[in-house]
Amino acid sequence: MLHRVLGGVGRSMMTAGTLILLFVAYQLWGTGLQEAKAQRELRQEFSAMLEQVDATSTTTTTAAPDTTEPPEVVTAPADLPLPAEGDPVAEIRIPRIGITRTIVEGIGLDQLKRGVGHYPTSPLPGQAGNVAIAGHRTTYGQPFHNIDKLEPGDEITFRTLQGEYRYEVIGTEIVADDAIEVLEDKGDNRVTLIACHPKYSLAQRIVVSAELKGSPAPPIEGQDEVRAAADATDPFASVDGGLSGEPAARWPTIWWGLACAAVWLATWLVQTLLRRRLRSREERPTRAQRLVTWTPYLVGVPVFLVTLYVFFENFGRLLPGNY
What does 60-90 look like in DSSP terms, one character per residue? Predict the structure, then answer.
């Protein structure tokens, strides 16, 4: 009797350990699959927007009289749309850490699951002021995983609907998760990159600042009013944004957990019944017949893994954050 109890406890612990390892794998790599798919969609959408702007832009050439200097070519884009939450707004490239991402408008959980997010209360990349950008370090593609390796002088470039802009890193600091002052205007033109710190933790935030080289772009018509409204109503008008995640309903997690258990139990029961039925026969089972008893797992395991993936997605929403 005792050995059965100990055997059951041992199997339960092994099962729990396996599930924990699978959840860690989902957090580190499974979430990256979602981010990669979202990034492909964002790149296509942003490329279409760039093509539309290029098709409607007007180019003028001006030259000062009585000079030998080459004429200045000025390209004025058509009236640009104000970005809505979830829209692609720019492409960021950081050569030193090998990062290229399409930036999405917004820093809520749903936006940061798609890659790098832009604080709606800050200017757009390339514009005057303090541009604020947030991204995860260990989940959802970990776009800012090596942000701590950036050094003064490193280049950060943005491609936007208004043109291409280059920044140079000027410093890195570690702040508390409520240090909203890093979002304030510093009297210059800069970009502020924000991520969790240290890696695999929500304890603090790492902030990398870079200075714009060249002239800033003007604000889009109506943008100042939208920013003012976002500043007054946006629940993520803080340095943290969606980096720490947000609580989700427990019932979806419970239902998907029960679905996982039901799929695995049904698979095990069918396999057990087939095996007992085969053993009840008088003749010795053939190898092919023994293999047939394992066919329920060929169907059940893929279904179980799909339901487990959805369960992990909901369970992850109940945790403190996504790093």
Answer: EEE--TT--SPPEEEEE--PPPPPPTT-EEE
The answer to whether the predicted template modeling score (pTM) of the entire model surpasses 0.85 is: no
How many of the other CB atoms lie within 10 Å of CB of 244? 15
Q: Which residues pair with 211 in a beta bridge?
A: 168, 190
What distance in Å separates the CA atoms of residue 104 and residue 196, rounded to the nearest whole number? 18
According to DSSP, residue 295 is labeled H
In this predicted structure, which of 20-29, 111-120, 313-322 has the lowest mean pLDDT?
A: 313-322
Three-state secondary structure readout of 213-265: ECCCECCCCCHHHHHHHHHHHCCCCCCCCCCCCCCCCHHHHHHHHHHHHHHHH
- For residues 87 and 161, membership in a common domain is answered with yes
Report the number of distinct structural domains present in the chain. 2
Rounded (5°) CA angle 301-302-305: 85
Find out whether 237 and 230 touch, Cβ atoms under 8 Å. yes
Q: How far apart are CA 292 and CA 37, in angstroms?
A: 37
Residue 254 shares a structural domain with residue 224: no
- Stated as kind and residue range, the H or E segment containing 131 is strand 130-134
Reported as a single tens digit per residue, the pLDDT across 38-60 is 999 999 999 999 998 887 766 55
What CATH number is given to the structural domain containing 125?
2.40.260.10
Please, which residues have CB within 8 angstroms of residue 218's CB and are 6 or more apart in sequence? Answer: 127, 162
Shared domain for 266 and 228, answered yes or no, is no
Side-chain half-sphere CA neighbours of 198 within 13 A: 0
Q: Is residue 60 part of a domain?
A: no
- Start-end of H helices in the chain: 2-25, 31-56, 109-112, 223-233, 250-279, 287-292, 295-318
Q: How many CB atoms lie within 10 A of CB 50?
A: 16
The Cα 159–Cα 125 span in angstroms is 8
Residue 294 makes CB contacts below 8 A (sequence gap 6+) with 271
**Cα(241)–Cα(37) distance, rounded to whole angstroms?**
23
How deeply is 51 buried, as exposed, middle or buried, from its count of CB atoms within 10 A (0-12, 13-18, 19+)? exposed
